[in-house]
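LAB NOTEBOOK - FOLDING QUEUE
OPERATOR: T.R.
BATCH SIZE: 2
PURPOSE: Compare the predicted structure-token outputs for two unrelated chains run back to back under identical settings.
PRIORITY: normal
REVIEWER: second-year student, initials M.K.

ITEM 1
FIELD SEQUENCE / FIELD STRUCTURE:
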Amino acid sequence: MSHHAAPDLTSSTSVDDLLDLGSLLTDDERAWQAKARAFAQDRIVPTIEADFEDKHFRSEFIPELGAAGFLGMHLSCYGTAGAGAVSYGLACLELEAADSGWRTFVSVQGSLAMSAIAKFGSEEQKSEWLPRMASGEVVGCFALTEPDGGSDPASMGTRAVRDGDDWVITGAKRWIGLASIAGIAIVWAQTEDGVRGFIVPTDSAGFSATPIDGKLAMRASIQCDIVFDGVRVPESLRLPDAIGLRGPFSCLNEARYGIIWGVMGAARSCLEAAVERSSSRQVFGGPIGRFQLTQAKLADMFLEYEKGVLLALHTGRRKEAGTLTPEQISVGKLNNVREAIAIAGLARSILGGDGVTDAFPVMRHMANLEAVRTYEGTDEIHALVVGRALTGVQAFR
């Protein structure tokens, strides 16, 4: 075996065999996981290191993801797959094992943009947009975060003012995934009646989206600055049932749920690379895996990976039962991102100097995970959500 052989994601791995996670899944869940793993291995992995280096997003994958049923797969209407929460989580895990950018795409399209329309849109809006988004014909973005900070959306500066049968939107958003390739943007703006949501076609006059350059993470995906310069939107494109911040927050919780699973895919990829390298790298006359310190690192990495997947599975079962709370989502997001980053760091140490090169996926995953750590709620915000749940005291202000 080559020292730099990529782990074979199409077969069951020893990491997952050790505690037999598959025995906790249904046949349908295993089938979705296998389909996502095959797509990630066959389509994403062969070019992802070059795409990361070249800052290239392969938009040709979008209709393929749609045809496979991954876009909005957890929804059950208007051309979506109607998969369970655990199946969706497993798909997120397998896509992020290839690269966080592709789990992010599925998350922005399905958990954010499509969920907003499915939860808060009119029948006309749902029937017009959801089938086209499920197929990948139309890409959606979710415009909530603003340049002055994402953790306090209640203070957003983007405004929508009623003008006859239209709304006029003025303001700016930042770090908006997919905005420069999207056909529609789900835009959240302050009105005289509080925060409201709008479906804004991106070819509207006054709408401009500029990809953010200089990123050292998420380089194979797109995040943008958006400017709204008096963008005129008809009342028919306002999401009628989105009232206040409950609207965007419920969508964010859908996306955070996917992250709980997804980052464990990045962690598994790093763990597999470390396990393989501990056998193939020879020092002091034998493989480094025979040293106690190396085995201790591998054991620590495996324990946190396994606990993270079990936590994801628990949140998934609660989501399917309709009992998952925002606080539980914060526990999962905070723990799993933090532990995935720690696993990537230990994997890098086992790989030695070669671990900082693109011969292995570890540094790419580590950089991506730092971005995931910040978006959909920072560590600090999720820690305060958990602290509030434990103490009953709000510490945000």
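ITEM 2
FIELD SEQUENCE / FIELD STRUCTURE:
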Amino acid sequence: MTVARSWSRIVDWLAANHPTTAALVNPPATAVDIRYLQAAINRPLPADLVELLELANGTEHRAVRGSLIPTLYNLVPVMDMLSIRQMLQEIERRIVGSGPRRGDSEPAGSPTTDWLDTFLPIADAADAGLLYVDLRDGDQFGCVWEWYAEGGGASAPWWASVGEMIDDVASALTEGRPALQAYANGAVWPAQRHSPQLAEVDEGYLRWSAT
């Protein structure tokens, strides 16, 4: 399923079931925004990420309760992608210095505890967690990981692509089934992150809870 179709399912579900969240989806990123992002990271962008940005430039509800993407995440606009990435690059260089990192030469989808220049944040959480796209070369180029500064990346990518992530969320919302089932079934979760996630509206906020 295309990103456009999956995103339409999400937006339609939000409009019918949670209009407060629907109103917080940003307008599409401009062509200038996307070209600037491409130039700033100096890496190819996955086509499905570009397609998503052409539909919505993140959301505006990251400072309030609730989340659109499991487990705790909301999509960030282009300029926030770059500012978060720059902040993490600076932190990494202060800690370990400049130069190659462990993982730089590994293919996309390889675990690493370092923040690499080939990682691009696409969503954040109130507890400082991130979702990022892995832009290293390889068969898993464009896969989506979770990141926490305390422990680095998750043990495996959560989704194989942005398109898969959006389709998973769309199906979870519209079909009432848990998201992240493939990851829960196929990889070792960190402690207390071991279950698929079911969407619910709790006290007026969209959130995800373990099944």
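REVIEWER COMMENT (ITEM 2): Confidence is low (pLDDT under 50) at residues 188-194.
FOLLOW-UP: none requested
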